[in-house]
Amino acid sequence: MAEQEPFALLRIVDRYGGASVVVQLDDSNAPGIPDTTAQLLVHNDFVSGVWTTYVEPWDLAGWEHVLDEVAAGRDAVWREAARVAEIGIRLDRREDDHDRITVTVHDQQTTGLALALDMDRGWIDEQRVLLDRLRAAWAHLVPRGRGAPPG
After folding, report:
1. What is the pLDDT of residues 77-123, one digit of tens each?
2. Are 71 and 124 in contact, with CB atoms under 8 Å apart?
3. Which of 46, 63, 88, 144 is the most buried (most CB within 10 A)?
4. Is 8 exposed, middle or buried (CB count within 10 Å of its CB: 0-12, 13-18, 19+)?
5. pLDDT at 32 over 50
6. Strand, helix or coil at 21?
7. Long-range contacts: 16-22, Cβ < 8 Å, 24+?
8. pLDDT, position 144
9. Helices and strands of the chain, counted as H and E runs
10. pLDDT tens, position by position, 38-54
11. DSSP annotation of 73
């Protein structure tokens, strides 16, 4: 049986492969269905880090909003001032074949970093594919259109 690719909410890897920001979800409790626990993986030539975090089904609408904003040429932050690390994206330059972006990661206590990445055109569409895959896996938990936690 072929091994399925791990679930990721985002996998932003620069066009040269030297830097990346990934939020990868665990599926150890029920293979094929992602848990809410995740790893935030950050890598470039200077720093490499892993941070345990989580992603809830209602976080997906916020990430979709970030993708929409960046696609429109505006800066955006996912989970700003929230309970876990926030991830921001700033579009520095858009050219015919690639975008130059800065991805920021900040936790609520001590850590903050910014990575400049050159991205091949179409990187936002790749993020939407990951989002749609995760949304489909969690469809039974949160119907599409629900953007806030229950309660």
Report:
1. 999 877 788 999 999 999 889 999 999 998 877 788 999 999 999 99
2. yes
3. 63
4. buried
5. yes
6. strand
7. 16/118, 18/44, 18/45, 19/43, 19/44, 19/45, 19/115, 19/116, 19/117, 20/44, 21/87, 21/103, 21/105, 21/115
8. 54
9. 2, 8
10. 999 999 999 999 999 99
11. T
| pLDDT reported for residue 142 | 60
The distance from CA 27 to its chain's CA centroid, rounded to whole angstroms, is 17
Across 55-138, the runs of DSSP E, i.e. the strands, are 76-78, 86-94, 98-106, 112-120
Whether 80 contacts 69, CB under 8 Å? no
Per-residue buried b or exposed e for 33-69, using 16+ beta carbons within 10 Å of the residue's own CB: ebeeebbbbbbeeeeeeeeebbbebebbbbbbebbeb
How far is CA 59 from its chain centroid? 10
Confidence band, pLDDT 50/70/90 cuts, at residue 3: low
**Closest Cα to residue 37, out of 84, 96, 105, 82?**
84
Q: How confident is the model at residue 1 (pLDDT cuts 50, 70, 90)?
A: very low
- What gap in Å lies between CA 127 and CA 9, rounded to an integer? 8
